[in-house]
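Aggregate trends can hide what the representation actually does to any particular protein. This step matters because it turns folding into a mapping between discrete strings. For completeness, the protein is quoted in full, as a sequence line and a line of structure tokens:
=====
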Amino acid sequence: MADTSVLPKKPRLVLLVDDDSHYLSAIQELLANYGFQTLTAADGNETLALFRRRFSEIDLVLMDFNLPRVNGCELLAQLKIMAPEVKVVVASGFFGPEEEDKIARAGVAGTIPKPFRAEQLLAEINRVLAAEIDAGD
């Protein structure tokens, strides 16, 4: 049974971006169990095409930083050009000093190291979405 303290107040749409299909499926199922709707993309090009069509509906992007075709920095920059207010959480297995600096400069709303527990991911997503509500969005 889902813990109702982490359920969104209204349906929220999360764009999941990762080149690992098993990871995408698992995160998609987890978020669905907690009342989130999801879209998935396996690489930067697919993400950009999907985001162009649906950016006004997307509440949050949860993305890996190391992606094929379009790297994480370029993808973040393109997303911010299309929708400067987009909330992005970067999930990655490695955050070295250089990556942390790039991510911070890109204006992401949060980061979460892989591997993570379900509770950690839900807490980070809810923190970012709560910040949006607190800011009056």
In short: The chain has a mean pLDDT of 88. The CA atoms of residues 47 and 53 lie 10 Å apart. DSSP finds five helices and five strands in the chain. The radius of gyration is 14 Å.
